[in-house]
Design goal:
Layout (H helix, E strand, L loop, with lengths): L28 E2 L2 E2 L11 H13 L6 H4 L4 E5 L2 E4 L4 E4 L2 H4 L8 H13 L11 H13 L2 H4 L2 E5 L4 H16 L4 E4 L8 H6 L3 H4 L8 E4 L13 H17 L10 E4 L2 E2 L5 E2 L2 H13 L4 E4 L14 H4 L5 E4 L11 E5 L18 H16 L2 H22 L3 E7 L2 E6 L16 H13 L2 E2 L1 E3 L5 E4 L7 H27 L15
Parallel strand pairs: 5-17, 7-8, 7-9, 9-12, 12-13
Antiparallel strand pairs: 1-2, 3-4, 4-5, 6-14, 10-11, 13-14, 15-16, 16-19, 18-19
Helix pairs in contact: 4-13, 5-13, 10-11, 14-16, 15-16
Length: 508
């Protein structure tokens, strides 16, 4: 049965391996976190079922998260999401990193209400407003000082992909060049120019060419493109870039820009070594190539620093920002050095650049994260979660790698029976990853997948996650991985092995 066809009251496996209506159990406490009662099939509100049914009929085949999570959220607060059927879930997706403060944080709601009550215009294109001025001040105060000094900001359409387009057009205008340097595993959006920079072939293959992009190796320690891994692999990746750019027969026309992520999110939560980032900055600076850093998902404290570039200390020529900067509402900008500000009026426009509510919510979020040290807490909590997950990897051979930075963590699942490669990495197991995702949902945990083969469990909890919630997330995740792995082992031993699920687990 397809996940899209599973009713809200019974999150089940698309393969029939993991999850069933009875898997959630009765009301109780899990990991010290209050658990809601679970309605049976007869008691589930028909409205939720009807909404899911209409979604399947009316929405496009391109929908994604709705397939992974066949639930109808009706209420949310902090890290907790409640479905129409009364079940509660701990949300480790957080709007793909958008919800730095979780759902409906009081400081965000207050900023929105205050703006609505003030009578401020909600839509003004790119006209000056008090809300825009305040947001710009809050943002510039949060940026690395060396970068913010003399920087300019351009408000884009309300998605990160449009800000990527703007940054690319800006550098093309400034340099008079057209190409770009991007990396394997990169994700920069789904519009034409941003898609050309993206590494995922599956989303690019059906489309015509999106532009001249030179693909460079990203330092992925677990699956090193050079087969060596570790620091040596990162050094080789940097050397390759420098030699290629300097080779008159290398086939690389001088580009308009290089764009990279300090931590690849959709690419599988792959953090770039700080030394490699500093080498990319040196190489681009020495050759007059503008460096764009995509901080759409890594920004606003996510990696344990306010901005991911702060770990390495590099100062880019432009930063692309979205997701959390809008305080849960749509907002995207590109911030860049003023000496690149050479485009003409109207060179990059859009109807929804003046989202007043998002600017108010964003300013409140930026100041709250800074005032309460949430970036620093993300670093501490992330280290604790990573240590627990690596301990789990020692017990469960299906966990091939645990990595990340701050509260941007990834657990790569593999086939433990397969032969490892030269770096010791075994083949990814996307089927197991899907079953673990479904087992997590049955246990009241929302976790999405990513990575080269969709075999990486991605953890993006809000920065406000409590110690109690950390314990609950890790307990549920560990239980889900162990259960799915056990089912796989049983299936391998006996093709007729029946699915199993915990008799009584509550869902937050």
């Amino acid at each position: 049965m397809s996940l899209a066809a599973v009713p809200a009251q019974a999150p089940a496996s698309s393969s029939g391996d993991v999850g069933a209506a009875g898997a959630l159990g009765a009301a109780g406490a899990v990991g010290g976190v209050e658990a809601a009662g679970v309605a049976g099939a007869a008691g589930a509100p028909a409205s939720g079922e009807a909404i899911l049914r209409r979604q399947r009929v009316r929405e496009s085949a391109a929908r994604t998260y709705a397939r992974s999570f066949p639930i109808v959220p009706v209420r949310a607060h902090g890290m907790t999401v409640e479905g129409a059927d009364g079940r509660r879930y701990l949300d480790c997706l957080s709007g793909a990193g958008t919800l730095a403060l979780g759902h409906n944080h009081p400081v965000v709601l207050e900023a929105i209400r205050r703006t609505l009550d003030s009578g401020a215009p909600l839509h003004l294109l790119d006209l000056a407003t008090a809300e825009k001025d305040d947001f710009t001040s809050a943002l510039f105060e949060s940026l690395p000082a060396d970068f913010a000094a003399g920087a300019r900001i351009h408000f884009c359409g309300p998605a990160g992909t449009d800000a990527v387009e703007a940054a690319l057009k800006l550098m093309q205008t400034a340099t008079g060049r057209s190409g770009a340097l991007a990396f394997t595993g990169a994700y920069h959006g789904m519009t034409a120019g941003a898609l050309a920079l993206t590494g995922n072939v599956a989303v690019k293959e059906p489309l015509p060419s999106g532009g001249e992009v030179v693909r460079l190796p990203y330092p992925y320690g677990y699956r090193c493109p050079f087969g060596v891994g570790g620091e040596a692999g990162a050094d080789l990746a940097a050397t390759y870039v420098e030699r290629l750019l300097d080779d008159p027969s290398g086939g690389v026309v001088p580009p308009a820009a290089m764009i990279l992520e300090a931590v690849q999110g959709e690419g599988g939560v792959v953090p770039a070594p700080d030394g490699w980032l500093r080498e990319m900055r040196r190489i681009t600076a020495e050759r007059g190539i503008p460096l764009i850093v995509d901080e759409v998902q890594t920004g606003v404290g996510r990696t344990g620093a306010m901005w991911a570039v702060e770990h390495s200390g590099i100062v880019p020529d432009a930063m692309v920002l979205s997701k959390a900067i809008g305080g849960s509402l749509p907002l995207a900008v590109v911030v860049y050095r003023e000496d690149y500000d050479g485009w003409r009026p109207g060179a990059h426009t859009g109807t929804f650049r003046g989202n007043t509510l998002a600017m108010a919510a964003g300013a409140a979020t930026l100041r709250y994260v800074a005032a309460h040290g949430l970036a620093e807490r993300a670093a501490v909590v992330g280290e604790r979660m990573t240590a627990r997950l690596r301990g789990l990897a020692a017990e469960l051979p299906v966990i091939g790698d645990v990595r990340g930075r701050g509260l941007m963590l990834g657990v790569e699942l593999v086939d433990p029976a397969a032969e490892p490669d030269a770096c010791g990495a075994r083949p990814a197991d996307p089927g197991l990853a899907r079953r673990v995702r479904e087992a997590c949902l049955a246990r009241g945990l929302i976790v999405e997948l990513g990575g080269r083969h969709d075999a990486v469990l991605r953890l993006l909890p809000p920065l406000t996650i409590t110690d109690e919630q950390v314990a609950a997330v890790l307990d549920r995740l560990a239980d889900a991985i162990a259960a799915a792995a056990a089912l796989d082992s049983a299936a391998a031993a006996s093709p007729v092995a029946s699915p199993a699920a915990p008799a009584a687990r509550g869902a937050e």
